[in-house]
Structures are given as structure tokens and as C-alpha cells.
Amino acid sequence: MSEEAALREHICMMAKSLYDRGLTAGSSGNISARLSDGRLLVTPTGSSFGRLDPARLSLFDSEGRLIGGDKPTKEMPLHAAFYETRPKKTGAVVHLHSSHSVALSILPDVDADNMLPPLTAYSIMKLGKVKLLPYFMPGDPAMGDAIRGLAGKRSAVMLAAHGPVVSARDLEAAVYAIEELEETAKLAMLTRGANPSLLTDAQIADLVRTYDVEWD
User: Which part of the chain is the Class II aldolase/adducin N-terminal domain (predicted)?
Assistant: First the structure.
């Protein structure tokens, strides 16, 4: 099986796993992943993660031109911004509309610079700081501009009242990271107002140093 064929199958398999576990619903969410020659495979617009066809994924050349497959997701500005600003660290981007992270994003007193409280080590290890961005209309190119404004300093962002976007070195890492984001948001919602014990600054610093976490 060629690299492209294998990646097409992998995107559809991971997308269905996310759909089957309720991490995205209907036709929401989108995934992109980069081939070794710089081309991108992207989930089409209006498609369900539960029923993706590997042959119909959108294909872009290394210059960002659509060269095959169905019409791509309207959220391409999100994906393109991560590939542009983190070219050596981004091999895939995943965007979901997962419920707990969206719920947390619209509550008062959420830290916009780091929306996830330090409840566990794993969110820090896999995500670093998650920047909360303001609301944008879906498909608005300004979403990409907001990510470019971070100058490549965040691997994950949360679009208020919309959903999380995570980039990583490959598709599996991006999926695992966005799952961790949703699980941590769920914990934050479950413990909100209960004065939970958070990781200390020293514990966070130890994680950052040991696992080479981006944390500025």
C-alpha cells in the first residue's frame, strides 16, 4: 500500500473512532494530514466522521492548491495557519466540536492564555498551554489570522463557542492530544466550583522540563 493510500485509510479510521465515541457529531469536525512530499489530505465539507470515503478525501498540492477529491472543509484557514507557523512540528491538524471543551469556552473567568486548569499531568504533557481565541463565524479566514498571530507558540487552541483545534507531528498524536483536551475540559466542568487541588507551579515546571513541553 502506498503512503497516500495508507494515510487515507488512517484518517478515516481515526475519524470514525472519534465519531463512534461521541467526540464529534453530525457533519462537524475536520482533519488534515500531510504526506512526506508536502501534499495534504483533508476531510471534505459536509462529511460525517462516521462515514468518510478514503477515495473522496480532498487532496491539496504542496502549494495549497486543491488537486483532487471532494470540496474541502470550510475550516481550511485553521489548518493552513498551523502548517505555516509550525512547519517542522505539524504533520496533522484535528478540529472537533466536542461538548465539554465548548462548554468550558463559554463560561466566565476562563483564563484566555491557558484555558485548561492544571488538573492532571497529561494535558500539560500533550498540549502545553491551550489558548482560548474569541468567537469567529465558521469558515471565517480571520480564524487563521488569529492563529498566525500566535507566531507558532501554541500547538492547540480553543475557538470560543465553536471547538478545539490541535496540531501535532502526526495524525495519531493530534488525535490523542485533542482527546486529552476534551477529557481535561470534562474534568474542569465536573470540578468547577469545588475548589479542586491543582498541580503546583513546581510540579508543572518539572513536567515542562522532563517532557520538553512548550510553555512560555
Answer: 9-189
Structural domain containing residue 117: 3-211
pTM of the model: 0.96
| Domain-located, residue 133 | yes
For residue 216, tell me if it sits in a domain.
Answer: no
User: Of 75, 179, 182, 183, which residue is the catalytic one?
Assistant: 75
| Average of per-residue pLDDT values in the chain | 97
Whether 179 sits among the annotated catalytic residues: the reply is no
Long-range own/partner contacts, residues 187-191 (CB < 8 A, 24 or more apart): 187/119, 187/120, 188/100, 188/104, 188/116, 188/117, 188/119, 189/100, 189/103, 189/104, 191/119
Write the CA distances from 92 to 75, 76, 113, 172, integer angstroms.
14, 12, 23, 8
Asked if pLDDT for residue 1 goes beyond 90, the answer is: no
Annotated active-site residue in 4, 84, 122, 172? 122
What dihedral do alpha carbons 130, 132, 137, 138 form, nearest 10°? Answer: 10
The arithmetic mean of pLDDT across residues 62-82, rounded, is 95
